[in-house]
Amino acid sequence: MPSRSSVTGSSNHTSKVRYSKLPDSDDGYIDLQFKKTPPKVPYKAIALATVLFLIGSLLIVIGALLLAGYIEVTHPDRTVPVLIIGILVFLPGFYHLRIAYYASRGYRGYSYEDIPDFDD
C-alpha cells in the first residue's frame, strides 16, 4: 500500500507561501470595522447656524436700542418681544457655530457629528 505523501504528490520542499498563526480566541470582530471614517462637514447646517446667528445678533441690537430709547417707538410694550425673539434665534446659531469652529480646529470632544445635518 503506497504512503499518503506519494499519493497526493506532495513533497518535503518548502513553499514560498507564508502563514501566520490564528489567534486562540476569535470573537468575530476585525480591526477595520472600528476605524472611524472622517466626518462629513455639514455645510448647510453651518450656513443655517450663521444666518440664525446674524439675524439674532441684529434683533438683539435693535431690541437693546429700542429699550434704551435711542430709537423712538410709539408702542414701548413691543420692544421686549424683539429682544426675546433675538435671544431665541441667537442662541442655537451661536451654539452650532461654536461646535463647528472647535471641530474645524480639532479640539478634543468636538466633532461635526454633533451638528444636525439636513442631508439625511
UniProtKB/TrEMBL annotation:
It is found in: Cytoplasmic vesicle, Autophagosome; Cytoplasmic vesicle, Secretory vesicle, Synaptic vesicle; Early endosome; Golgi apparatus, trans-Golgi network. Keywords: Cytoplasmic vesicle, Endosome, Golgi apparatus, Membrane, Synapse, Transmembrane, Transmembrane helix. Residues 1-26 are annotated as: Disordered. The chain crosses the membrane at residues 45-68, 80-101. Pfam families: TMEM_230_134. GO terms for biological process: synaptic vesicle transport. It comes from the Eukaryota. InterPro entries: TMEM230 (IPR044234), TMEM_230/134 (IPR008590). Residues 1-14 have a biased composition (Polar residues). The keyword Membrane applies. GO terms for cellular component: autophagosome; early endosome; Golgi apparatus; late endosome; membrane; recycling endosome; synaptic vesicle. It is a multi-pass membrane protein. Belongs to the TMEM134/TMEM230 family. Involved in trafficking and recycling of synaptic vesicles. This is Transmembrane protein 230. It comes from Paramormyrops kingsleyae. The lineage of its organism: Eukaryota, Metazoa, Chordata, Craniata, Vertebrata.
